[in-house]
Automatic annotation (TrEMBL):
InterPro entries documented for this protein: DUF34/NIF3, DUF34/NIF3_sf
Protein's name according to its UniProt entry: Putative NIF3 family GTP cyclohydrolase 1 type 2
Annotated a divalent metal cation binding sites: H67, H253, E257
Gene Ontology CC annotations of this record: cytoplasm
Organism: Deinococcus metalli
Domain of life: Bacteria
Keywords: Hydrolase, Metal-binding
Record bears the keyword GTP-binding: no
């Protein structure tokens, strides 16, 4: 606990260490509470669920750094009019206010770091060596919107690629499931496909960017957070039909990015050595029957 450092000070320290160019528009803003309050502790998480908020308050933390939105849409606290009078929204808002919790989102800048903070945490959990991408995510977004169809090959160059010992796709999927503690994973591609190089399309990347990654000669399979099923899935099914099989392992959005927020807690401890910093996983919201 510290009586001298404000929450705003802590976030500014974090951003200075991240050393990324400021964006004119970013999701990385304070979502709730008073950031000029003295900092009592930090919790990092993929998503500030009601349960995470409750546990953060119980351990005396008043800053939650979340990767994804708190209020169920990309606009988050910028637009909650559509949730007007919704009892779940009101209950969550009251829970946050009662405990004096400040929520700050750390999404854009964490992905913009070189290397990407989310990818670093995932690779660390899996024990993989990752080649840094030749193109930044900001450049990739611009490439996606260039011209009529976008420059997909350039956008795909922003994907980090890991080298793994040769193994079949089936064995690879089982390894990923075990290392990430996932209750299940979804697999596309032939089980006997040899996997040596893995494109890390974590989170929820656009289908075109994931397909562009699969078009790379140095990628055998993509490790994916979530995907729209009529895009990359159908590309892979047709590619296999025409004799160009590749693979995809879908682990879930939270499962693919939670290790990166766990790594954030480790990274922050070096910046704020006098502050209690913990990671609280939000967990996979799905169960498999």
């Amino acid at each position: 606990m510290t009586d001298t450092l404000s929450i705003r000070d802590a976030v500014e320290t974090l951003l200075a260490a991240a050393a990324v160019a400021p964006l004119s528009h970013t999701a990385d803003t304070f979502k709730t509470g008073d950031p000029d309050t003295a900092l009592t502790g930090v919790v990092t998480t993929f998503l500030a669920t009601a349960d995470v908020i409750r546990h953060a308050a119980a351990q005396g933390a008043n800053l939650i750094i979340t990767h994804e939105p708190t209020y169920y849409s990309a606009e988050d606290t910028d637009d909650v009019a559509w949730l007007d009078s919704d009892p779940t929204y009101e209950d969550k808002r009251r829970l946050i206010e009662e405990h004096g919790i400040v929520i700050w989102r750390f999404h854009d800048y964490w992905h913009m770091m070189r290397p990407d903070g989310i990818v670093t945490g995932l690779a660390q959990r899996l024990g993989w060596t990752v080649d840094p991408p030749s193109v930044s995510m900001d450049d990739a977004i611009q490439a996606m919107t260039a011209g009529k169809g976008g420059d997909i090959k350039r956008a795909a160059a922003a994907t980090s690629v890991a080298s793994v010992p040769p193994m079949t796709l089936g064995a690879f999927a089982q390894h990923v499931k075990e290392q990430l503690g996932a209750p299940s994973v979804r697999v596309l591609g032939p089980d006997d496909l040899t996997v040596r190089r893995v494109g890390l399309t974590v989170g929820a990347l656009p289908g075109k960017m994931t397909i562009g990654t699969l078009q790379r000669d140095d990628v055998d399979v993509v490790l994916c957070g979530e995907t729209r099923e009529w895009e990359t899935c159908e590309y892979l099914r047709d590619a296999a039909f025409f004799g160009r099989p590749k693979g995809m392992v879908v682990v879930g959005h939270a499962t693919s990015e939670e290790p990166g927020m766990e790594y954030l807690a480790e990274w922050l401890r070096a910046l704020l050595p006098d502050v209690r910093i913990t990671h609280l996983p939000s967990g996979d919201p799905f169960r498999t029957l």
